[in-house]
Structure formats: C-alpha cells, structure tokens
Amino acid sequence: MQDPLIEIRQALSPERLGAYARGGRGELDALGLYIWNTLLCEAVYPVLHGLEVSLRNALFDAAGAAYHGHGFAQVPCWLDADPPVLLPGERGKVEQAKRRLREKGRPLEPGRVVAELSFGFWTALFDVRYEHGRVLWPRLFKHGLFAGAPRRLRSRHVLSPLLNRVRNLRNRAFHHEPIWHWRDLGEQHALARDLVGWLCPELRGVLEPFDRFERVARGARGRPGDAGAAHRRGDGAGRGRTAGDGPGERRQSMRRPRRPPVSRTAGALGVRS
Predict the structure, then answer these.
(1) Alpha-helix residue ranges (DSSP H) falling in 106-207
(2) Is the previous residue joined to 14 through a cis bond, with omega within 30 degrees of 0?
(3) Under a CB-based contact definition with an 8 Å cutoff, are residues 258 and 220 in contact?
(4) pTM here?
C-alpha cells in the first residue's frame, strides 16, 4: 500500500511542506504543523473579513461626505472625481477596477468599484501623501471615520502602521502562508478586533461569539469553551482589549501558540507516529 504521506507531499508540494519541516522536524510532524497553520488562518478569517469590508465602506462614506457635490468622470463618486481627489498611483488602481468591470460586462457603479479595490488600496489612503494639502486627513475624521477609537489614537499617523500590520497578517493568512510561528499572533488578532470595534462596535459584537482564534491557538491542550470563558471573565493571556483601550496598553503573552501533537495527524492517516 502506498504511503499516504507520499501522496500528500506531492499534493501540497515538497517545497511547501518542507517549510514546516525546518529545525529537524519529521515529515509527519511537519504535516501536523501545516494543518494547524491552516486552522489558525481559518480562525483569523472572520475578523479580517469584517475589518476589510467595514473599513472600505466607512472610508468610502466619509470621503463621499467630505467631497459631496464634486464632479466625476464616469463613476458618480469621489473615487472617479474630476478634478481627481486621488493621487496617480491610486487613480491607476481605480482605472484597473473600472476596466475589470467592463470586461465582466458590469455597470460602472460606485459599490462595484469599491468591491473591486483591494485592502491594500484602502490602507494606502492612510499614507502621509494624503495628509499633504489635507486631501483626506484629518478631514475624514470629521465625518465619523473611526469614531470609536480613543481620541489619542484617532490620527492618520497612528492608524496607518496599525492597518498595515493587520494587512500583512491578512495577506499571509489569505494566501496560505505560515503564521503559526509569529510570537505576536494573538496581539495582531486582538488589534484587528479593536479596529473593527472602532469602526463599528456592533459588528465586533456580532463577530465575537464566532471567534475561535483563542481556542485554536491553544492547540491540543485547550478545551472547548476555555477561550470563551476566559473572555467572559476578562482574564487569560489571549483576552482581547476593549474598544476603549489602546494597542499595546496591555501586554499579551508573547509565547508562541502550542501546536497539536503529531499523534493527531498520525491517527488521521492511520499510521504510527
């Protein structure tokens, strides 16, 4: 009978699986680590999804209020303003989005253009370039953007690095890259929750009951319900900050999350570990 590990190695590629075998780990152990990393990526997805969608909509609405009545080229919104609001790099991204919509036979509507633009596009709008001439900053804060953030954090120069930090996590998790070894993974997950809460506390409240990150990050030693109980009590190394706290005010545990034992993977494959 063919060793199932051979088939799995071929399916995932030796190069991809090999990245988890560093440090002298055996192949079975590497596979267990790979599967656990997949579960971690799955666990951070809900909050990252909530942040991406709520950020782009909140920013779009705030800029729309700031540039109400502005002329436009083809799409009736500030993204396609004439004269332009955006700088050349971001205008190019909007033109690409419009071209993709045309190729799909879709109408050039504001909501469709917004959905075509990447998370990186929206975080780029927090760059210092948009503070020059007060193009976006700080004027958008006057239109309710990040209204739930503590006053001392409600500035472009504070929010920009926070959003870029979460964007890096989002890109790695959404593109199936390793995140299991990040010592600050719990802190980044908590930061994403804070950002969602500062944009829309109601959305954070809806997402939290379905957030499995803490339980998954505890690995095999965590028991179902442990993370939720810790969150309700307000204790434990992985608890999230409240929307009134600032990033870094409460130090989270920097210990790397525990990974499941190799025996679980071995059992699934029907082999001895």
Answers:
(1) 110-116, 119-124, 156-174, 185-199, 201-207
(2) no
(3) yes
(4) 0.81
